[in-house]
Amino acid sequence: MIYGFRLSLENPELSFSELVSILKSYSLEWSPKWFFKKLYILEVDAKEDLIVEIVKRSATAKMAFRIYRVDKDSPMNLISSYRKELLSYIDKELSYRLKVYNMGSKYIVDSTREFESMFADKLFSEELGNLKISLSSPDVIISLILYNEYCILGKLLIDDSRKLFIKRRPGSRPFFSPYSLQPKIARTMINLAEIKDGIIIDPFCGVGGILIESCLNERECIGIDIKGKLVMGARENLKWIDDNLTYSHLIIGDACKLPLRKAFLVVTDPPYGRITSTFGRNVISLYNCFLKNLSHIIDSEGRIVIMSSQKMDITQIGLKYGFKSFAKYIIPVHRSLTRLLYVMRYIE
Ligand SMILES: C[S@@+](CC[C@H](N)C(=O)[O-])C[C@H]1O[C@@H](n2cnc3c(N)ncnc32)[C@H](O)[C@@H]1O
Known about the structure:
Strands 2-3-1-4-8-7-5-6 form an 8-stranded mixed β-sheet. Strands 11-10-9-12-13-15-14 form a 7-stranded mixed β-sheet. It is elongated and about 75 Å long. Helix 5 (183-192) packs across helix 6. Helices cover 29% and strands 32% of the residues. By secondary structure, it is an alpha/beta fold. It has 2 domains: 2-159, VC0802-like (2-Layer Sandwich); 164-346, 3-Layer(aba) Sandwich (Rossmann fold).
């Protein structure tokens, strides 16, 4: 089926990679159809419910639509063919409304609201057989997406543009650390691993930025940090989202002597040598001893999603211990801080 995804435009390459990684984690076949600036249209071998689940999981996908057709014509010219198209999708038991998403149309210059009600009157005519209309709580929102000279007819599946990441920002959590990851980045890192289930290990967990997102996805996680005070902080933050600590385990320990027998998926943000403490080791030797230690316990094909400073390319360090980078992203954190994010696979 054809679906349209509205993604965050903050870092389009990263948003698209996140979406594709989630599709891969569900082993879904997909192919690109149209790439508009604000809407990516893909053919995905998935039911509508699964697309909704995928958008909920993602940090950067805001909306998803089932797409019925894409035309390069003015909306007014398309009305009668739209009615015919909709006949095959209409369910008389359900109530409907039309919503116009004007993403920069060549045709609509006046108020989108006025256009919407005029277009709905014409579209939902008797030819569709007295549809139940509900403006306040429709069962189905028929969507007309207007972009440049394109008109895209579809159905809204999910509008998750008010995702509540803001409520989980480091400054809003009970235990604050200025070095903690922003929830959107933490969630994106988890998704980039292309693995849907299984335990997530964060050996440099700090106050739990990655662990919180893992728990909200109902995924078991193990957090390790060398600093007991931060592990207690992580505990407080994790209790804040789930008092029973259903999915999380915490250990005070050294990432260079991991207190684990096995690992498959590691998502982590080690100290990057700016301010966060490395406890006497220089950053390069810390990455070396951590990756060396991890290589003794990680399964073949195991994944690691890891941040580093922009000044340090860790591709070579990874290769020394059998971790091959298969993706690398530039993450602007704030004006004076840019970081690199790697996705690696353990190959031997
Ligand atoms: C950039 S911070 C991680 C922040 C974390 N992602 C969060 O959201 O709070 C790096 C963390 O690594 C910890 N650390 C430094 N050396 C370590 C080591 N050898 N083993 C485990 N943790 C270490 C520091 O205490 C610090 O909390």
